[in-house]
Amino acid sequence: MTFTERAKQWLEQSSRNSLGIAVGVAVLLTAVGGAFNRGFVSPSNLLNLLAISSLLGLAAAGQTLVVLSGGEGIDLSIGAVISLSAVLTSQISNGQNGLLFPAVVVTLVVGALLGLVNGLGIYLAQVPPLIMTLGMSSVIEGIVLVYTQGQPKGQAPPFLATLGTGQVLGIPWLIIVWAVFTLIIWYVLKHMVYGRLLFLVGDNRSAGRMSGVPIAKLVVGTYALSGFFSACTGILFLGYTNTTYLNIGDVYILPSVAAVVVGGTALSGGRGGYIGTVVGAILLTVLDSLLTTMHMGEATRGIINGVVLLVLLSIYTRQPKDA
Amino acid sequence: MLTIEGLRKEYGAVVALQGASLTLVPGTIHALLGANGSGKSTLVKMLGGVVRPTKGTIWVDEQRLEVGSPAHAIHKGIAVSYQETSLVPSMSVADNVLLGIEPTGKAGYVAQRSLRERAAEILDQLGLNIPPDVPVGELPTNIQHLLEIGKALVKRPKYMVLDEATAALRREEVKRLFSIVCSLRDEGVAILFVSHRFDEVYAICDRATVLRNGAVVGTRSLSNTSREELIQDMIGRRISLEPVQQKTGTSFKKQAVCLKARSLTNAELRGVDLEVSAGEIVGIGGLQGQGQTALLRALIGATTVRGDLETDGHQGLFRNPSHAAGNGVRFISGDRGREGVFGQRSIYENIVIGRIATFPLWKRASQRGENQAARALVEQLKIVHHSLFQEVRGLSGGNQQKVLFARTLASKPNVVILDDPTKGVDVSTRMEIHRLLRNLAGEGVGLLIASSDDEELAEVCDRVLIMYEGQIVRELTGDLQPSHITKASIEGAQSEKGKGAETRADSL
Amino acid sequence: MRTPFNLNQRATRIFRSPAMIGWVLFLIGLVANAIVQPTLFKLSVINSNLGLAAPLIMVAIGQTAVVLAGGIDLSVGSIVTLTNVLVVSLYSFHHTGFWLAAIFGVAAGMAVGVVNGFIISVVRIPALLVTFAMMSIVNGVALAILPQPGGQIPADIYQIYGSTVGGLPFPFLLIVFGVLLWMIFRYRKIGRYLIAVGGADWSSRANGIPVTKVRFQSYILSATFASLAGLFLTSEVSSGDPLIGASYALNSLAAVVLGGTALAGGRGSVSGSAGGALFLILVQNIVYFANVPSYYQTLVSGLIVVIGLATTGVLYVRSGKLHLTNGR
Question: Model ipTM?
Answer without folding.
Answer: 0.84
